């Protein structure tokens, strides 16, 4: 079941973690393609920061989405 407006549940966190892992892998690959090396100094910090931003972005979007999937719309009674 989807969470109500201004509420999060465990499912939201699990989906957010999946998005964060996917974004981290894509960022790692992109960073390697741009720099020409996969393990440059600071790569882990860059990948981690982008993954955290993706996680928080997903959770914020879900926080302001009601159980019907409508953004910035309170639950209909």
Q: What is the molecular shape?
A: elongated
List the domain count as a whole number: 1
Could you tell me the radius of gyration in angstroms? Answer: 16 Å
As residue ranges, the low-confidence spans are none
Number of β-strand runs? 0
Report on the architecture of this protein.
By secondary structure, the chain is mainly α. The protein has helices at residues 10-35, 43-63. It has one domain (10-63). The protein is built from 2 helices and no strands. The chain is elongated and about 55 Å long. Helix 1 packs antiparallel against helix 2. The mean pLDDT is 92. The longest helix has 26 residues, at 10-35.
In short:
The chain is mainly alpha-helical and 77 residues long. The protein has helices spanning 10-35, 43-63.
What distinguishing features does this structure have?
single chain, 77 residues, 2 helices, mainly alpha
Write the layout of secondary structure elements.
Layout: H1 10-35, H2 43-63
Helix pairs in contact: 1-2
